[in-house]
Amino acid sequence: MAVHDITTPAAGSSTSLRRGRRHRGERVIEAFLVVAALVSIATTVGIIVALLQPTLRFFQEVSLVEFFTSTSWTPTFADKHYGVLPLVVATILTTLIAIAVAIPLGVGAAIYLAEYASDRTRRAVKPVLEILAGIPTVVYGFFALFALNPILQKYWPGNEKPGFFNVMVAGIVMGIMIVPTIASLSEDAMSAVPRSLREGAYALASSKMQVATRVVFPAAISGIIASFVLGISRALGETMIVTIAAGLSSDKVIWNPIEAAATMTAYIANVASGDIPVDSIDYTTVFAVGSLLFVMTFALNVLSIRLVRKFREVYE
Predict the structure, then answer these.
(1) DSSP string for residues in 240-303
(2) What's the confidence (pLDDT) of residue 179?
(3) pLDDT in tens, 259-275
């Protein structure tokens, strides 16, 4: 009885000490997470503040009507026009080509890795696929210009061939660049689908393809949509590929993908690295275009959140 009285408080003290250390560790982690969230918010606010003043100065000189309706963008020419439509159309056209390439390849790779590949194959293939995401985009740009574009010019049907700079080759290579993003996130979403759903489908004599496309894919649709939006956002903000491969023509709206055209990011990169005076109206065009790109990306993310919440499935 005496031994029990001596050892019990010691054991209780040791347990309390471990609990105290664990609680302190949790509070430290919680504080770090709060700081990380605040840094993200502060960064977003800083971007808005940095863009706001020059953008307002630009619109004091240029009307919103001209900016959004004029079909010529030539702020660095002698005959100046400030219609952003050529940049917007080129950006959207390049992004559409990119997602037309990336979504089928990315989803196909995700379905194979999640449903068909063995564990050994998955462990080998997925890291190799994700290597594409680590390649510098400037390398993709030169690959598009000097490796893929000659093939495109040689085999393009019809008499009109793609030019040395064109939107098509930039969009194709940009799609290849974002395949790992879509494939990896979609595969993670599909792998998170409970095994019981697959087993129930197999019990009803469903084939592997039916299980993958009619059970797993709908169940993981929220994560797959999130991967699409992330890929599209990266395509919208891509700079080096379009700067190198798509060209810098912005004097008119381009609808033909085999012609050269400047995207919003390409224009920003080109003008920001030039010798335009900082206090000039031409320099503030960079901030006006950047603000519009920020708004487009923000609207896309808001839409993605709504879609993810709408299609989200919760399994217990």
Answers:
(1) HHHHHHT----SS----TTS----HHHHHHHHHTS---TTSHHHHHHHHHHHHHHHHHHHHHHH
(2) 92
(3) 889 999 999 888 877 67
Report the predicted TM-score, pTM, of the whole model to 2 decimal places.
0.84
| Cα 146 from Cα 236, distance rounded (Å) | 23
The residues, ordered by sequence, that sit 6+ positions from 227 with a Cβ below 8 Å of its Cβ are 106, 181, 182, 184, 185, 186, 189
Distance CA 308, CA 205 (A): 31
List, in order, residues 6 or more apart from 50 with CB less than 8 Å away.
none
Residue type at 134? G
Instruction: Give φ, ψ of 82 to 5 degrees.
Output: -125, 45
Give the pLDDT score at 1.
45
CB 234 within 8 A of CB 181: yes
User: Among all chains, which residue has been given the structure tokens 């030019």?
Assistant: 163
Domain 66-311 coded CATH 1.10.260.40: no
